[in-house]
Amino acid sequence: MFSWRSRGGGFPLNPLHREAIAFTATVRKEWQVMMRYWPDTTMIILETILMPIAYWAQAAGFEGGDPNASEAFAQRSGTTEVAGFIYLGWVVYMWVTTIVWGPGMSLRKERMQGSLEPLFLTPVSRFTLLFGPSTTQLFPTAILFTVVGLMMRYVFGVPLGAGQIIAGVLVVAASIPLLFGLGALVGVSVMRMRDSSGLNSALRGLIGLFCGITFPIAVLPEWVQPISRVLPITQVVDALRAAVLSRAELAATWSRSLILLAFGAVISASAMVLLELTLRNVRRTGRLGHF
Amino acid sequence: MPSAGTDIHRASVPAVELEELTKFYPKRRGPDGRPIASVDHVSLRIEPGEVYGLLGPNGAGKSTIIRMIATLLQPTSGHVRVCGLDTRTHEREVRALLGVALGGERSLYWKLTARQNLEYFAALHGHSRRKSRARINEVLEQMGLADRADDHIETWSTGMRQRLVMARALLNRPQLLLLDEPSSGLDPRAAQAMHDHILQLKTAGHTILLTTHDMAEADALSDRLGIIDGGKLVGEGTSAALKRSVGATWVVHVRIAVPTKVDLDLLIDDLAHVAKANVEPEAEGVFALTLLSQVSDEVVPALFAAAGARGATVLRVENEPVSLKDVFLALTGRRLSAEPVAP
User: What are the pLDDT digits (tens) for A85-136?
Assistant: First the structure.
């Protein structure tokens, strides 16, 4: 029979079980808030559908029906599917946006509203605080990718077979730790800032420019291209396009997925270390509860 | 070394023990560039079952002390022990013993219901929704919030949200409750309701450390008080003992216009046989006198006689028993206000 800890008694469960309960509760709490603001999520999905149409129309306008232009695009991007190319880049961009500017900012938001101190007084782990909120975002993200797949297949006629879909899901799944880690890293970095909106805008712009979201990286200046290629978001976009549009071998998709997982592990671990260092600092300076 | 989970052992040690506790914030410096201590060698003990009030103006160091006890802030030097456990070496165990109400109503999730808020925090302590249901109902009932438990708290009043913060602090059946300015921002009625709840917790045997700059609140709720000013503990004891330490039972607050400073000094000399005077200038030729006396009936006639003799005009007189306000004035030479103390 359950009993609350008697005064001064120990915790009733083993740490893993306790953490699982805390993690689930964090996901549920974010879900409850998200459901109160479901129009926001709907708008993100609409933006993900509509914006690429504008980029696609722009590309079609510049191409002007010239077969040489299509050929040039194929040489630079590895595919003739302009709509698919743009949609896959854009859906990753939107995923990054929702993670980094949603759950990624959650610690900062907690600090701003004054709930960070009560959170740190509980035995919840840094892992749950950093990655619990992002997990809730997986549901709208799944809708996002599904809608984009439907648009590509049924509106723009991009050929998508079971093989491409499975390969795409594999890449997306392998990217989850990377995206979560990136959100956490940015989230911890901005904890000390009074206003992070400028940084947010700058990051969005840099990702849009350097990660080949709506255009092939090959059009960037030559000295920029190697930098762009090693950026984690570029890796995700490239791997997804290769798996879905270029019909890459399954082995190649696996190896790219492993690279993404490795990136994710390193970035997530860095975020946890940075959070620990930040917490030590704010415990000394007293800024945990101040904003 | 004391260990967690032994109530019998803890009964013999103080609930809280501060030993030469000191905190310097890295960037807090005076006009001369020297670091200023936010908490300056504070030592005190709080016994189990006691309600201890830390009274002082904003910026005096009260919240810093409470945060150091809660392990949210690292002391620069000195020790904090909770139920015999040093916060430096037993941080996790200490946190398990605490119920902390910090940050006021902002520290809740306004987009959730009261129940969802409590379920979330119960889960962070490792208790599933199913298993925490009874306890959540209990604390909601205890704080008088059960009938609104499933409302989103954004629709609640400040007082109700403050009580929910308290309910959250009680969730884990803490050994020690830390309440930082529990009635801050509340209207008088909501503040009174909050006081009633704190008194119920006191009756139930909780050990409570509360901070406040409200003397009436400190007086009404605390078994013992610590008066803190400029980071230093300047006085400590029961309310009655602190009032006795002033050396008077009555205080007369006077606003008086005096032709010259010399006349004022002579007037004070005239009153010396009935009262001890504290003077604060208010405006050109106008002063606030605080007269501390053992004999209430003789002070006012003596005041008017002296004023007549020195050409002074008494603008206002108020006669009242000695309060904590007077204790603070006697200990620090300043009136207690909510305004922060300048460094």
Answer: 999 999 999 988 888 777 667 777 888 888 888 988 888 888 898 888 889 8
Q: Per the structure block, which two tokens stand in for B232?
A: 């230093």
Q: Is B341 inside a domain boundary?
A: no
Q: Please, which residues 133-152 of chain B have a Cβ atom closer than 8 Å to chain A?
A: 135
CA distance B343 to B335: 16
Query: Among B4, B100, B108, whose Cβ lies nearest the Cβ of A121?
Result: B100
Q: What is the pTM of this model?
A: 0.81
Structural domain harbouring B313:
247-321
Q: List the domain boundaries for chain A.
A: 15-284
| CA distance, residue A277 to nearest chain B CA (Å) | 14
**B254-269 confidence digits (pLDDT tens):** 999 999 989 999 999 9
The answer to whether residues B103 and B51 belong to one domain is: yes
Phi-psi region of A24 (alpha: psi -120 to 50; beta: other; left: phi over 0): alpha
Using CB atoms, which residue from B102, B131, B175 is nearest to A118?
B102
For chain B, what is the mean pLDDT? 88
From the CA of A132, how many Å to the nearest CA of chain B? Answer: 12
Same domain, B218 and B270: no
| A6, pLDDT greater than 80 | no
Residue ending a domain, choose from B243, B266, B300: B243
CB of B87 within 8 Å of a chain A CB? The answer is no
* Contact between chains at B92 and A121 (C-beta distance less than 8 A): no
Asked if B119 and A13 come within 8 Å (Cβ–Cβ), the reply is no
Pairing of strands B286-293, B250-257: antiparallel
Interface of chain A against chain B, CB under 8 Å?
2, 4-13, 17-19, 21-22, 24-26, 28-29, 32-33, 36-37, 113-115, 117-124, 283-286, 288-289
**Residue B327 counted as domain residue:** no
Chain-chain contact of A118 with B25 (C-beta, under 8 angstroms): no
Residues B170 and B115 reside in one and the same domain: yes
In a domain, B98, yes or no: yes
Same domain, B261 and B168: no
> Is B245 within 8 Å of B235 (Cβ atoms)?
yes
Q: Which residue type sits at A197?
A: S
Tell me if B126 and A11 make a contact (CB, 8 A cut-off): yes
Q: Which residue among B26, B108, B125 places its CB closest to the CB of A284?
A: B26
Per-residue pLDDT tens for A253-274?
899 999 999 999 999 999 889 8
Q: Residue A71: enclosing H or E segment and its boundaries?
A: helix A67-77
Query: A5 contacts in B (CB within 8 Å)?
Result: 96, 172-173
User: Hey, are the CB atoms on B103 and A289 less than 8 Å from each other?
Assistant: yes
Residue A76 CB coordination number (10 Å): 14
Q: In what order do the strands lie in the sheet with B85-86?
A: B35-46, B16-29, B77-82, B85-86
ipTM for this prediction: 0.82
Q: What is the number of alpha carbons within 13 Å of residue A177 lying toward its C-beta?
A: 18
Average pLDDT, chain A: 85
